[in-house]
Amino acid sequence: MKGSLELRKCDPGNDLDIIVSLEREIFRPSEQYTLGFINWLCRNCTNYSYIAFMDGKPVGYIISCIEGLSRGHVISVGVLSDYRRMGIGNALMCRSICSMAERGIDHVILEVRVSNTPAITLYRKLGFDVHGVLRSYYNDGEDAYLMILGNDKFEALIRKCCSVTKQPP
Ligand SMILES: CC(C)(COP(=O)(O)OP(=O)(O)OC[C@H]1O[C@@H](n2cnc3c(N)ncnc32)[C@H](O)[C@@H]1OP(=O)(O)O)[C@@H](O)C(=O)NCCC(=O)NCCS
Questions:
Q1: Whose CA is nearest to atom 5 of ligand 1?
Q2: Name one Pfam family in it (predicted).
Q3: What is the pLDDT of residues 21-32, one digit of tens each?
């Protein structure tokens, strides 16, 4: 990869503007979350959410949350178009999943548009499988795949990406 990539844990006090501007640039208006929801996510899911900086410039982000004791949920991930296919999406996914694994999750879920081949390919490569179709999941009526990383594939990803010491829940 050209340039130096740094992944920094989201700081809710300072990073809201960065995440909002990345989200606005990466996603179409109809796909964007409201400012209030991004604010809520930044404040409640900080420990598992990261911003990617390339040579100091913010170029991507991931927001994930833990639900209950054992489920990680990737809520939003995106990389600016000029910085795609450089491994940044993969690095963000791994870092976020590892930080949730340290807190004891044993599987990860996410939803993705059925037309979103780049994201689906990335998720499959990480070990996610399609577990169902959520009909008309998005505001514009498009269906989503519910994808899950669990069991052996979860363990394999953790072995590959993380040096995890599980903490008690
Ligand atoms: C999905 C997304 C985050 C991937 O980010 P990225 O930094 O380009 O991903 P990576 O470079 O880490 O790609 C890892 C692998 O994913 C797959 N992949 C990524 N983009 C792909 C594409 N356009 N077509 C096919 N496969 C793709 C490839 O297998 C790739 O590995 P390779 O480059 O060695 O072949 C990025 O395309 C994006 O921001 N899209 C718009 C926002 C979005 O749709 N987010 C997901 C919402 S659920």
A1: 89
A2: Acetyltransf_1
A3: 999 999 999 899
**168 belongs to a structural domain:** no
Q: Evaluate whether residue 21 is within a structural domain.
A: yes
Cα-to-centroid distance, 140 and ligand 1 (Å): 22
Number of domains forming the structure of the chain: 1
pLDDT digits 0-9 by tens, 55-93: 999 999 999 999 999 999 999 999 999 999 999 999 999
What residues line ligand 1, using a CB cutoff of 6 Å?
26, 77-79, 84-90, 112, 116-119, 121-122, 125
166 in any annotated domain: no
Global confidence as pTM: 0.96
Length of the chain: 169
**For residues 50 and 79, what is the distance between their CA atoms, to the nearest angstrom?**
12
Instruction: Give the CA distances from residue 148 to residues 78, 97, 108, 145, in Å, rounded to whole numbers and listed in that order.
Output: 19, 12, 6, 10
Cα(111) to centroid of ligand 1, in Å?
15
Q: CA 151, 156, 159: angle at the middle one, nearest 5?
A: 130
> Containing domain of residue 77, as a range?
5-161
Distance CA 18, CA 115 (A): 27
Indicate whether 34 belongs to any domain: yes
Output the domain CATH number for residue 52.
3.40.630.30
